[in-house]
Amino acid sequence: MTETSIQSAVPTQSRGRPPAASRGDVLALAMHRYLRGRRIDVHAIAGELGLGRTTIYRWFGSRDELIGEVLVRAAEPLLEQARVGARGTGALALLDTLDRFNRSLADAPALRQFVENERDAALRVIISGAGKVQPRIVEMVTALIRQEVQAGRYRPAIEPSTLGYAIVRLGEAFLFNDAVAGMRGDVDRLRDVQAAMFAAERPSDDGSSRSRSGGRRFASD
Q: What angle do CA 97, 100, 105 make, to 5 degrees?
């Protein structure tokens, strides 16, 4: 191979300004800050990535929306892990999944620090139906309920989306203290109440109300 052909085979580097950071880069850096207990500061993120703050606001709408996306991304794997580790089927599987998920949230250092450091923003982002967090968590929990229904392992007394919404709102009440915007982490009582909600099933086609939990009491598992 001649020197000329070698040179032609080597990709030429484009000159000029380096490629601009992407929306994903902003989200990744925001996640990095969140997981390390640092404030998700739009000004600092923009400076570090060489972006204008207006660009970040155009992508995410507001700082609250950016934080919301970070919290959803942090929560998704926790719920997935909880589902994989859950025992049983039907209502028992759903209860165990939610119990594991709730405990992982209560034990998450980054979430606790965010709530403690930014009380007003935390409640505004986490429990607002107009934000990203609550609707997405409701969607994920509802999907789990529908899976058990479609598999014939669970017959909820109310429509899955309504049950999913109620379960998530109940979790918010027990995990977060509205009065001081702090973490309550009252997961034991939360499990008892969620057990009662999941245990309520529609009668089967033959008119009976057989329990799919094998006679086990949810609250005492």
A: 125
Q: Residue for token digits 């994920």?
A: 140
Decide which of 105 and 181 is more confident: 105
Q: Are 147 and 119 in a shared domain? A: yes
Residues 152 and 184 in one domain: yes
Cβ within 8 Å of residue 158, ≥6 positions away: 166, 200
| Beta carbons of 89 and 143 less than 8 angstroms apart | no
The gap from C-alpha 63 to its chain's centroid, in whole angstroms, comes to: 18
- Which domain covers residue 31, as residue numbers? 20-61
87 and 28 assigned to the same domain: no
**pLDDT tens-digit profile of 89-131?**
999 999 999 999 999 999 999 999 999 999 889 989 999 888 9
